[in-house]
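Before relying on records like the one below, remember that each one covers exactly one chain. Contacts with other chains, cofactors or solvent are not represented anywhere in the record.
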Amino acid sequence: MENAVKEKNKVVFLSVIAAIVLTSFKFIVGIITGSLGILSEALHSALDFVAAAITWLAVRIADKPADKDHHYGHGKIENLSALIETLLLLVTCIWIIYEAVFRLISGKTHIDVTVWSYVVVVTSIIIDFTRSRALRRVAKKYNSQALEADALHFSTDIWSSLVVLLGLICSNFEFYIADSIAALIVAFIVIHVSYKLGKRSINVLLDRVPEETYLKVRSILDGLDEIEQYHDLKVRAAGAEFFVELNIHIKSKMSILEAHEIANMIENKIKNEISRCHVHVHIEPEVKYHLSGNDDNQKSFE
């Protein structure tokens, strides 16, 4: 666990530094050239800085163990930070769209394209590529939604930077409205990403069932011969943690020790398949028992 915290903190810290460098560079060049495309990219990078800072704080808190006030740990701080990042992205998009539309309507689309315009965009693409790869690798390794959100921020910057680069090339041929159009495209890319991030974050915060994990648990349970049936299977996520609860029915003549061993076996099987998973198994003796209604968490038996 200690190594995981160090690795996550390191990759996020480097992302904070990268975001600071890119934001400063883009703002300077954007103001000098008057390019809305570059300025919109500067705002996007400024948002990446805020997002990376939030993520840095979130991963430090999320890995704290459960305490008397947080019995299920602090994992959901990662999901909350991802939602905050989404809202910040949307606020930025409103400004970009407003400014781009104003320039297109007013006709004030002229910009000064210099060699620095290309340097800042190409530099941004290179840094964003390296940071998104590093963040995505660590996010996948530790199942961190906050790091995944940060990785998505940087990978989105790559596409938006490519669009801005195309706008700059067009502006060299005095097709200046391409810069404002590029800014609009950046905004719509960010809105699309924001929607996906926000939806996932809200699903976890509202304890929506993580379908992939739920099906994996069902597959494990369906393959067990030691139990007569199971029901009331519940799965939820909190940051990188998963929580599983279920009821199992065993033969009524089994001893408490035998029943306990079966419960332990089930818990270990699920934990081996799903990392950072907490499992609670409730044991019931098998009698002439029929569940009311249709419960799709029930194992079929004769």
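Residues 254 and 285 are 8 Å apart (CA to CA).
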